User: What shape does this take?
Amino acid sequence: MGSALLFLTVYLIYPILNTAYISFLGRSSKEFAGLGNYWYVFTNTDMLGALKNNLLWLVLFTSITVSLGIAIAVLTDRVRYEAAAKALVFLPMAISFVAASVIWRFMFEFRPAGMDQIGLMNALLSNLLGFKPVAWLVNTRVNNFALIGVGIWVWTGFSTVILSAGLKGIPVEILEAARIDGASEWRIFWRIILPMMRTTILVVATTMVIIVLKVFDIVYVMTNGNLGTEVIANRMYKEMFNYHHFGRASAIAIILLLAVIPVIVFNIRRFRAQEAAQ
Amino acid sequence: MTGKVGRRLSRSLLHIVIISICLMWTLPSFGLLANSFRSRRDIVATGWWMALKTPFAFTVENYMDVLTGQSHYGEEKAPDKSRSILGDIITGQGIGRAFLNSLIISIPSTLIPVVIASFAAYALAWMRFPGRDLLLIIVVGLLVVPLQMTLIPILRLYKGLHLAGTFLGVWLAHTAYGLPYAIYLLRNFFKALPQDLFESASLDGASQFVVFYRIVVPLSIPSIASLAIFQFLWVWNDLLVALIYLGGTRDVAPLTMHISSMMSSLGENWHLLPAGAFISMMLPLIIFSILQPYFVRGILAGSLKG
Assistant: This one.
């Protein structure tokens, strides 16, 4: 217990306080900078771009992983090969973001129109559907969506597993009773399944929000935040190692912390309620 | 035109939807696997699906090259007596060294937190001491604190202690970052053990340590296994912690760092990426396919119950 406490204090609690302090200091933490770093975070165009992209990630990544998770859980619940199908969707969870990025780098590979496409996405697009090939990672209109797509591909399995367990927790009698009363499957889904899975959905959604706020690897490896794909965590890395501005990097970290505080409060409340119920 | 036909139609539609989802989730990885066995010329010339056409032309040269960091392409291999392939794999500039580093990083980074968390979780679940509830709340609060919060102070601390760029530094960092989740998960598991177990044991005069060692641990092996798998995969797949605390040195870089630097040095090594990525995925995929139930159990216990 003592060692655990030591680790938590040295590696988590002390750094949080220290980072908060550094965020008010200058580049090398030698002089006081007041709110200067925060001013920078909210006015610099690169930073604003990163904040905007994280918002895009937040909305798309969270909503799509959750709704796809629900859809896959509900659909596979009706077939005999459920376990196998879910395992395949879950598989990317085992590999690193770096490996996933390599996989998708090849999927997104672009050759100018007229040449042999070696990436599957463009091959389907141009050879099968007859559209022009798209430079997925370069074209600033689509590159953020391409990166978010990779994130969704990796994390949907996670949300499926949890949501599927939540689905199995709904008593079969309730569903049977509704069917006997002549309710359509569609109606059962909206009126019974979704409301009864509310807590599970909320838990999955908060997990996804946390993941999205910290998203780093995919962006770092695939575009390094260039061409308008910057995100907060990658920006912090750059401030640290490319520009050596520790004040700004700390301010960015503090923004991240502030963003997760609602989730921390939510988790603690939920935990307390569950403890009280036991 | 009612019931039966409609039902059959919607059943087929259901299967089509599920199977296309499965394809979307497997084809990308399958394409990478296929590409990893194609020659350099083929990889840059055509898509991986062309490899499925006869005549099959597969090669393991990408694997040889990426493992050893030497090129086995083109010129007939002049037998070089001074070096063996195995030696190149372990000491060379290739990914073999990175694989070894990943193991060196991941194994202690899994064992240390699992052991510490087991003790802590037991104390939090079944011992009474002042401040216990507060500690639990702190652990729950720390679950989602972004790692980024800690990077600068810890890096500075490490520079002072000469821990930056060392395996020890990374082990300790991974231990600390893994602990909140590990403690939380194991406490949930331990708390679910029947209370009578502890009452009878303490009536028999067993000490806390004996109860922990003789009763709790043996009963919780599956739970501890699921935590260990979780932590191992997390560390194995980590890029950020390694980047920050290990710096850019090749001797200590794990697979994730090695591959990401291969990716940014565009061009010449492009054809080695599929093989490299696959080598990094091998171990997780093996663990995952054998121990998937434990993995799922860990995810569910950490998120649903609480």
In short: The two ends of chain A are 24 Å apart (CA to CA). Residues 15-277 of chain A form a domain with the MetI-like fold fold (CATH 1.10.3720.10). Chain A is about 70% helix and 0% strand.
